[in-house]
Write a structure and sequence with these properties.
Elements: E1 4-13, H1 17-30, E2 34-40, E3 47-57, E4 70-73, H2 78-81, E5 91-94, H3 96-99, E6 106-107, H4 110-117, H5 123-134, H6 139-149, H7 155-177, E7 194-198, H8 199-209, E8 214-217, H9 224-232, H10 234-237, E9 240-243, H11 247-259, E10 264-268, H12 270-275, H13 277-286, E11 290-296, H14 313-318, E12 327-329, H15 334-351, E13 354-360, H16 361-365, E14 367-371, H17 431-442, H18 444-450, E15 456-458, E16 465-470, H19 474-484, E17 489-494, E18 496-498, H20 504-510, E19 513-518, H21 524-533, E20 539-542, H22 551-559
Parallel strand pairs: 1-4, 4-5, 5-6, 8-9, 8-10, 10-11, 11-13, 12-13, 16-17, 16-19, 19-20
Antiparallel strand pairs: 1-3, 2-3, 2-14, 7-14, 12-18, 15-17
């Protein structure tokens, strides 16, 4: 019994591969299979070569695999694009005549099926049917889901889509029954209680759980999914969603919203964060809470605007002029994307600092089935006081956090000025006051360090080699380490990359070798370990071609460590 099948859908933008992915993943999950899916695509509306990788398994899976079991190319050019992922066992599935390939193609007459159902427009649904038939998904679930998916269409269109799926399903089963293919994945009834969520949805839902009621952004791939999700649910959750004219306006809106008492997020990518630098610094001196979601993509400049990279850690670490504290979270799982996004709002409110949620294109566009989010442990901490006539916005305190009032709540004056100020918020050039206010702001780091998100160790506790990763490398490292079979190696994942959690020190000191794994060219987190962890890495596994790590390439790299 094959318990894990990797399917790659490939074609040009506009050929419907995302429709196939969306429907097939949900039908498979509802049929009792665990599902993982991610995509890589070119920066164009039409044309190019785009792929979707979908895994169906008998157990939870949450990482990208390099190999391909079934390739469904909707365009012949996709074969060259994925040539390094194909093996002699890869099955190419599709219209044999239409593809005209040098390599053998297992004929699945998708075009003919679509014509029989009503026209070329039904090719995507026919392809879903073929793949569902091959994997023996529940055909009733397939029909029912199609009726839900196309519920806004005319009855005839719905019926023709169902017909295309039925014909495709029969063709897929025929390929299995005549011995051309044989896949039999064990079903898991527990998938019925699990949800299918991608990274963008998880960040947005976490923001909602954290009390977010204002989102401002200038759309920039790959962060836009968070804005569109919150905007599409603004009435349900009482959220103001503002598409700003640029990123400078977006961050200033978020700062102003927090000043007025809202709980705001600005979402952007690297180029947008570069423009937000002055606004981030403004939040630093105003001691206004601020949550920024930064979805990374390769730079510099426009770089590879639809690909993935972990190249902006140092940008987030040093964004904004002057010295002021901040917190940076970097979720490595869908669950962490939800929990850390919610936590970011409470951390920002409690410590009155900018808090970054650092993701990337891979995280944003990847989804897999997970247990329902645990909401019991999440609360909305507002940390707002009712002011009186003697209120001082920047009163010196032992932990560096001054009582935060908002306009209209109490009788006190709520001052805010980007110049250095005294305890009342009035502009000052007193050097004594300047020192006191700088020390007060920086003193918050001690408060932040009291409650960090600790790193997560996977593997043997008596490890000799320690793989260190952050953000989206988490799941590929875990599965790669498992496949490598090494018993002397563990993985330390950092959901909080700054400030560095004190719990990491013991692990770093224990390791004979520390190897950082990062999707960038300069081992940015490795440099952070030297600065704040007191440990220089002994090596690095780096990737910066715009694609995420696959399980196999990490397993190979881990195996080769001395």
């Amino acid at each position: 019994m094959i318990n894990d099948v990797t399917i790659v859908l490939g074609g040009q933008a506009g050929q419907g591969i995302q429709t196939i992915e969306f429907i097939l993943a949900r039908v498979l999950k509802r049929s009792g299979y665990h599902v993982f899916s991610t995509k890589e695509y070119m920066s164009r509306i039409r044309g190019g070569q785009n792929t979707i990788t979908l895994r169906a398994a008998d157990r939870p899976v949450s990482a990208l695999t390099r190999h391909i079991d079934i390739l469904l190319p909707l365009d012949p050019g996709i074969l060259e694009h994925v040539a390094d992922r194909m093996t002699v066992d890869t099955v190419i599935l599709g219209d044999a005549e239409a593809l005209s390939l040098d390599r053998a193609v297992l004929d699945a007459p998708i075009s003919r099926i679509a014509r029989e159902a009503g026209g070329k427009i039904y090719e995507s649904t026919a392809a879903v049917g073929v793949l569902a038939g091959i994997l023996e998904a529940d055909q009733t679930i397939l029909r029912d889901y199609l009726r839900v998916y196309f519920r806004g269409k005319k009855p005839k269109v719905i019926d023709q889509n169902c017909a295309a799926a039925d014909l495709g399903y029969a063709a897929g089963r025929k390929l299995c029954e005549d011995g051309s293919l044989s896949y039999s994945i064990a079903r898991d009834e527990k998938t019925a209680d699990r949800i299918l969520v991608n990274g963008a949805e998880a960040v947005a839902l976490g923001a909602i759980a954290g009390g977010c009621n204002f989102i401002s952004s200038y759309p920039m791939s790959p962060s836009t999914g968070v804005l569109t999700f919150l905007a599409s649910h603004d009435d349900t959750f009482d959220i103001v969603a503002e598409q700003a004219e640029d990123e400078i306006a977006a961050v200033n809106m978020a700062v102003a919203a927090w000043y007025a008492g809202a709980r705001a997020m600005a979402t952007t990518s690297g180029g947008g964060l570069a423009l937000m630098g002055e606004g981030i610094s403004l939040a630093g001196v105003l001691e206004t809470p601020l949550v920024i979601h930064l979805a990374q993509r390769p730079g510099p400049g426009t770089g590879l605007p639809t690909r993935t990279e972990q190249g902006d850690l140092e940008l987030a670490l040093y964004a904004g002029h002057g010295e002021f504290p901040r917190v940076i979270y970097a979720p490595g799982t869908i669950e962490e994307a939800f929990l850390l996004s919610a936590r970011a709002f409470n951390t920002a409110a409690r410590c009155q600092v900018p808090v970054f949620v650092l993701t990337d294109q891979y995280t944003m566009d990847t989804y897999y089935d997970i247990p329902e989010f645990e909401l019991e442990a999440i609360s909305v901490e507002k940390h707002i006081v009712e002011t009186n006539a003697g209120y001082q916005r920047y009163r010196l305190t032992e932990d560096g956090v001054s009582p935060r009032g908002v306009p209209g709540y109490g009788s006190g004056l709520i001052a805010a000025d980007s110049d250095e100020h005294d305890e009342d918020g009035h502009i000052t050039e007193s050097m004594t006051v300047r020192n006191a206010q700088v020390d007060k702001r920086l003193g918050k780091m001690e408060l932040i360090m009291k409650d960090p998100v600790p790193p997560v160790l996977t593997g043997p506790e008596d490890f000799r080699v320690l793989l260190v990763g952050w953000g989206s490398t988490c799941q590929p490292i875990r599965e790669g380490l498992e496949r490598s079979g090494r018993t002397d190696t563990a993985h330390l994942h950092f959901p909080q990359v700054y400030p560095l959690p004190h719990q990491a020190q013991g692990y770093l000191e224990q390791a004979e070798k520390v190897i950082v794994v990062e999707n960038n060219a300069t081992a940015q987190f490795g440099k952070l370990l030297i600065l704040h962890g007191g440990r220089e890495p002994d090596g690095a596994i780096l990737k910066y071609d715009g694609l995420p790590f696959t399980v196999e390439e990490l397993a190979d790299a881990i195996t080769e460590i001395d």
